[in-house]
């Protein structure tokens, strides 16, 4: 098969393979919070994770979940509750890096449909969507 | 400068990969499970292919594997005459369901309360996962080994394929509603709930039927015997792979062949689109899983597009680059199972 001048799509790295020594399912993996807490009564020389790093880990996991919720929302119909009891619906497009603005299309407002719009995050009280 | 597809090779299995399945989209992303003749099914992160864990316990080739919608449970079907249910978060085995012959296929209901199994004993079995000790409901009727069994129509019906037939069963009455006969061996079956479409492959054909009536919708012929095909969630494309080691991508509406890719070193046994349609995964006789982009050049998962503007005027060259790397070299790198592509020998300061 002759290929004209093309370059392969760049990749950040290759997928990680098995580590060869364990069966995996890392206890501190991203889904660790799903497992029920096992009370550590008997273990003696266990280094207690400092409260600070536990909190940091929880923050990281929650942030990742939030970002994934934004990904899942892309292209879907979302209902926004704005100030003064205003409700609008639109197709969610994206947010900017700081999640300060929501880029939406087909925004249905009480005064008509806006093809493209930016909703300021500070104007949004809540939003909901069905995945 | 056109971009060409860089497949991501997931190594780790030592024998042919015969089945693979994606979970739904969960708050933690989506996941992928692969069934392998080495008896050690693996769980991977769906968008990157990163290995998460290996389910250890089967004593024979694993023929079928599936995940429930939220990827909290996995089920596997094996040549050791058992189907097993696993905790997909911890990797622990939850249940072993004894059968009378090789088990080939497993499928969870949407609510994960029931597991459907099928295999060489020609029986469909429905297990209540909340009552593992109870005897399963059995549906008989197939005259040859069951290759694939799937819940459909909101788990009220069952679709099952043996060598030459595809049958539709009503779950409540456990009776056959309709069946399709084929002259050639049915190699695979996929059920698409949105639109109630059934994708069946046999010989070189990729056929689409209504999952409700089993009436044919359309079919395409591929250049070689096809072992598995998958329809994109938005039904724009389908991908198929088989005995010529190549993956084909077709436009679903026109049937036009859009792309084809070499890369595997053996026949392709299974191919599936991810739940968000951004990539598809293929499993092969060569023991590898490969991830392929649906839209070549899009930034997603591990694929990162570097645009010419970002390179300040230079021709777009991959920053972490394999510009001249052949598939074989990528294979070698992948098989080393290491993160760093460049060996990091520390500089010796004299």
From TrEMBL, chain A:
Domain SUZ-C: from-to ranges: 1-29
InterPro entries, alphabetized: Sm (IPR047575), SMN_gemin7 (IPR020338), SUZ-C (IPR024642)
Segments passing through the bilayer: none
Keywords, ordered alphabetically: Acetylation, Cytoplasm, mRNA processing, mRNA splicing, Nucleus
Domain Sm: start-end pairs: 65-131
Molecular function as annotated in GO: RNA binding
Top-rank taxon: Eukaryota
Any one GO CC term of the record: SMN-Sm protein complex
GO BP terms, alphabetized: spliceosomal snRNP assembly
Predominant cellular place of this UniProt entry's protein: cytoplasm
Location of this chain's protein in the cell: Cytoplasm; Nucleus, Gem; Nucleus, Nucleoplasm
Family, as annotated: Belongs to the gemin-7 family.
Role, per record: The SMN complex catalyzes the assembly of small nuclear ribonucleoproteins (snRNPs), the building blocks of the spliceosome, and thereby plays an important role in the splicing of cellular pre-mRNAs. Most spliceosomal snRNPs contain a common set of Sm proteins SNRPB, SNRPD1, SNRPD2, SNRPD3, SNRPE, SNRPF and SNRPG that assemble in a heptameric protein ring on the Sm site of the small nuclear RNA to form the core snRNP (Sm core).
Subunit description: Part of the core SMN complex that contains SMN1, GEMIN2/SIP1, DDX20/GEMIN3, GEMIN4, GEMIN5, GEMIN6, GEMIN7, GEMIN8 and STRAP/UNRIP. Part of the SMN-Sm complex that contains SMN1, GEMIN2/SIP1, DDX20/GEMIN3, GEMIN4, GEMIN5, GEMIN6, GEMIN7, GEMIN8, STRAP/UNRIP and the Sm proteins SNRPB, SNRPD1, SNRPD2, SNRPD3, SNRPE, SNRPF and SNRPG. Interacts with GEMIN6; the interaction is direct. Interacts with STRAP/UNRIP; the interaction is direct. Interacts with GEMIN8; the interaction is direct. Interacts with SNRPB, SNRPD2, SNRPD3 and SNRPE; the interaction is direct.
Protein name: Gem-associated protein 7
UniProtKB/TrEMBL annotation, chain B:
Top-rank lineage group of the source organism: Eukaryota
GO cellular component terms given for this protein: SMN complex
CDD domains documented for this protein: WD40 (cd00200)
Region Disordered, annotated ranges: 317-350
Family annotation (SMART domains): WD40
Biased composition (Acidic residues): 325-334
Pfam families (alphabetical): WD40
Alphabetized Gene3D superfamilies for the sequence: YVTN repeat-like/Quinoprotein amine dehydrogenase
Gene Ontology terms: biological process: negative regulation of transforming growth factor beta receptor signaling pathway; spliceosomal snRNP assembly
WD repeat residues: 55-96, 96-137, 139-179, 261-293
Comp. bias regions, Polar residues: 335-350
GO terms of molecular function: kinase activity; RNA binding
Keyword list, A-Z: Kinase, mRNA processing, mRNA splicing, Receptor, Repeat, Transferase, WD repeat
Family, similarity comment: Belongs to the WD repeat STRAP family.
Name recorded for this polypeptide: Serine-threonine kinase receptor-associated protein
Recorded name of the encoding gene: STRAP
